[in-house]
Amino acid sequence: MRILALLLLLAPGLVSVFGIKLMRDSIFAEYYPFLLNAGFQFFIGLILFVLGFAFIGGFIIYRDKKTNIVQFPTRKKVNKNISIF
Question: Transmembrane residues, as ranges (predicted)?
């Protein structure tokens, strides 16, 4: 089961790495021929990075909620019967 989880996280991780590489290459003026220009290449790289990072983060939060590791902050109840005077 752990191997399946590792393989599931490998694809978005590689997408994020490729996104970072696209952003870096657009900064150092190394362009791919299938992308139009540096700005478009940087934007595509940013989108790939954010999507991969969000998938990995969502997977970790989902797993931690399922095993009851994550504790979200609770709100304090406000006493509405308190008056100033």
Answer: 43-62
In a domain, 58, yes or no: yes
- What pLDDT is attached to residue 75? 63
Within-domain flag for 83: no
Domain extent, residue 34, equals 2-66
Distance, in Å, from the CA atom of 42 to the CA atom of 24, rounded to the nearest integer, reads: 8
Tell whether pTM > 0.90. no
Chain-centroid distance of CA 42 in Å reads 17
Q: Does residue 82 belong to any structural domain of this protein?
A: no
Q: 36-72, pLDDT tens digit by residue?
A: 888 899 999 999 999 999 999 888 888 888 887 777 6
